[in-house]
Amino acid sequence: xxxxxxxxxxxxxxxxxxxxxxxxxxxxxxxxxxxxxxxxxxxxxxxxxxxxxxxxxxxxxxxxxxxxxxxxxxx
Length: 75
Fold this sequence. Notes:
Blueprint: H1 15-22, H2 25-49, H3 55-74
Helix pairs in contact: 2-3
């Protein structure tokens, strides 16, 4: 990722700051992504169970999370 979420248009982030903030995070994120997806699925299931998400919303989110995991695993 080349831009931060908080990046302002027309303002360049110093490469030293980027290295400090990102470091090995991208590599570590790749190791954790499938676990994060499983945790997100559990969270969705819990939100459905307590009524904060409708069944249809939960099902759609779970399908998309599964698709994300498949896409990631496929490269």
